[in-house]
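Why should sequence recovery work at all? Because a backbone constrains its sequence more than one might expect. Tight turns favour small or flexible residues, buried strands favour hydrophobic ones, and helices have their own preferences. The token representation captures these environments compactly. In the example below, the structure is given first.
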């Protein structure tokens, strides 16, 4: 793929993404200072992921916030396709969602699409995707969502609740819509063709507007949902998009749960984390120490630096010092990696303990069909 080209769809991300171009392509809106000010008015702070452009784009967020200020509450919804264990890139929208839940005091629904991943991946059985759904649920719970305000939906389990809503949506989508949006062909299995209506269903599970924090690759589904919403008498979902998290081995393409070496899983041991980062994390440094000291590194393409920026170093001052020292050549690649390894491992130590505890709490979080 030529360096200035990229592809972003729910099932395929490739190339070096130009996010301003993507905003134009998708027809979303950039998160502006005025949106940030509105958020700050209600929440009292601007989350570092907003400040740093990790969440960079939205649909209808301004309207949703205006209505919230007038007393109209909303709920939150996000999800995960359980094709493997959770990796640290997945946690980005979830951690942000938890912040939103606290600040806006909302309910949240988390959809685990075991059917979708079964349809999309040749080599996965439904039993495997369902098992991963439970595994992924533990990671979600471990982040500290309030049990009384949080419900986890598993598609094959909660189909009784989802199906009537999905049916309303499905009737308003025709084959040429989905074909145009997702590039389906005559060989695409029909589970995939119906699937968008199931991902749409949780948007309408409560009788109030929804806000969806999500990776921008998922936007095409909700573009369809937003077209359908007024035609079934429902409010259009509002969206807030995060950038794709680079895989360890470098920019271009998102971190994929099926690419072992390029991925740090939430279940990895401290030794594994250390090995993976030292061996695979793409470096923006120079080939030799002398050259690095002279010319400095490039934090913009350095994956270790990017992980600190996106997730692991919320303190702006500390991040800036790392940035400047790396750029000037004072900080070497190995030293930068050591900082990241320490951060990831101390995060995972706590996370893995909470994940163990989540095993006995999971029933309180699972959505019950009525
Ligand atoms: N299709 C998403 C994935 O593959 C899972 C998902 C379901 C989702 N509902 C969602 C993601 C809502 C974001 C928001 O990961």
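From this structural description, the recovered sequence reads:
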């Amino acid at each position: 793929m030529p360096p200035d080209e990229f592809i972003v769809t729910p099932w395929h991300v490739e190339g070096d993404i130009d996010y301003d171009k993507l905003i134009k392509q998708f027809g979303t809106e950039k998160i502006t200072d005025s949106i940030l000010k509105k958020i700050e008015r209600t929440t009292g702070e601007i989350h570092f992921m907003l400040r740093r452009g990790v969440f960079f784009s939205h649909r209808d967020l301004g309207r949703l916030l205006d209505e919230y200020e007038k007393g109209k509450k909303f709920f939150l919804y996000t999800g995960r396709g359980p094709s493997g264990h959770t990796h640290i890139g997945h946690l980005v929208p979830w951690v942000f969602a938890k912040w939103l839940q606290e600040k806006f005091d909302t309910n949240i629904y988390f959809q685990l699409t075991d059917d979708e991943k079964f349809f999309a991946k040749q080599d996965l059985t439904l039993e495997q995707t369902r098992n991963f759904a439970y595994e992924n649920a533990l990671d979600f719970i471990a982040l500290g969502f309030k049990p009384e305000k949080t419900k986890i939906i598993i598609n094959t389990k909660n189909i009784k609740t989802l199906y009537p809503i999905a049916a309303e949506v499905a009737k308003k989508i025709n084959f040429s819509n989905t074909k145009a949006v997702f590039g389906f062909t005559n060989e695409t299995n029909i589970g995939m063709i119906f699937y968008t209506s199931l991902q749409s269903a949780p948007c309408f599970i409560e009788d109030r507007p929804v806000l969806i924090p999500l990776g921008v690759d998922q936007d095409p589904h909700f573009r369809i949902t937003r077209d359908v919403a007024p035609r079934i008498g429902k409010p259009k979902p509002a969206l807030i998009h995060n950038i794709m998290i680079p895989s360890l081995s470098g920019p271009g393409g998102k971190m994929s749960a099926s690419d072992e070496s390029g991925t740090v899983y939430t279940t990895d041991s401290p030794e594994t984390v250390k090995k993976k980062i030292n061996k695979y994390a793409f470096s923006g440094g120079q080939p030799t120490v002398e050259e690095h000291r002279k010319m400095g590194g490039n934090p913009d393409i350095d994956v270790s630096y990017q992980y600190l920026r996106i997730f692991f170093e919320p303190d702006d001052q500390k991040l800036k010092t790392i940035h400047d020292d790396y750029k000037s050549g004072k900080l070497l690649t190995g030293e930068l990696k050591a900082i990241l390894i320490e951060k990831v491992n101390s995060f995972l130590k706590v996370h893995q303990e909470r994940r163990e505890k989540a095993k006995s709490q999971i029933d309180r979080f699972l959505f019950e069909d009525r």
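A few observations help interpret the result. The longest strand covers residues 75-80.
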